[in-house]
Specification:
Length: 130
């Protein structure tokens, strides 16, 4: 495994996303949820995730879309979000160092918190249309 480095380029984003999603695919809790949603479209999903994190962290605006909507009806709870964030932080910490690495973890935590709250809201208010 390579040593830690700054998180600065699209190649760095791709490395982060590739390692992170390989861990997702092998995780007993998260793999069933992701595989059910993504099915055979992993290459498209990975491309979307590269663009998303490139936009968020590198401020190179390549991602267009609403990240929450595809997740709105997922069968997930707090345990899933804790596991997702744990894997994400572990991946960042093993691969990267520096300000962008810390920002990636901060942004992931905020995103997980927002998604968890919004999913819980929509589950308890099923008549709301997204």
């Amino acid at each position: 495994m390579k040593t830690q480095q700054e998180l600065l380029t699209l190649d760095d984003i791709k490395r982060l996303v590739d390692v992170f999603y390989e861990r997702i695919k092998n995780n007993n809790l998260l793999a069933p949820v992701f595989n059910e949603l993504i099915k055979d479209k992993w290459p498209q999903h990975m491309g979307k995730m590269y663009r998303f994190w490139q936009t968020v962290l590198l401020e190179e605006h390549t991602y267009l879309g609403s990240p929450f909507l595809p997740h709105a009806n997922l069968p997930v709870n707090h345990e899933h979000f804790v596991e997702w964030l744990t894997l994400f932080n572990k991946t960042v910490d093993e691969l990267f160092t520096g300000a962008k690495a810390e920002e990636a973890k901060w942004r992931a935590a905020k995103m997980a918190e927002m998604f968890e709250n919004k999913i819980a809201y929509f589950k308890s208010n099923p008549f709301n249309i997204l």
